[in-house]
Design brief:
Largest sheet: none
Number of domains: 1
Order of helices and strands: HHHHH
Structural class: mainly alpha
Oligomer: single chain
Length: about 120
């Protein structure tokens, strides 16, 4: 398994053992949802199918331009999978996720677009 594996990284920051596959289906669903939002913002390939082997490079490539996408995906998964009991903490997480969406959207809009060749 790659060190760059999205599912394994999310499990690690959630405090779930890498060998514990009991939550993989739920986590992959929430990861896919977060990636879908980012794809709509112009980040990542539109046709990415997320599974247990999907890597960060599959999603954002080898650039560090979209590194905050990792934090965004973690926050969205955490909010959906294991929300805090405190409304104040939940509001703070949601606010931070919204800020990351905005910042990532600005990055995506300012990225150089590929120009189609005339032939």
């Amino acid at each position: 398994m790659s060190e760059d594996n999205i599912l394994q990284d999310i499990k690690q920051v959630l405090g779930i053992e890498a060998s514990d596959a009991s939550y993989d289906t739920d986590l992959l669903m929430h990861i896919s949802t977060a990636i879908s939002v980012l794809t709509q913002l112009g980040i990542g390939p539109a046709d990415l199918l997320v599974d247990k082997d999907t890597t960060w490079e599959n999603f954002i490539g080898s650039t560090s331009r979209y590194i905050s996408a990792k934090s965004y995906i973690y926050l969205k998964v955490r909010i959906l999978f294991d929300p805090p009991t405190s409304g104040f903490v939940l509001d703070a997480w949601k606010s931070h996720a919204s800020e990351l969406e905005w910042r990532l959207n600005i990055l995506a809009e300012s990225a150089p677009k590929e120009v189609p060749l005339p032939w």
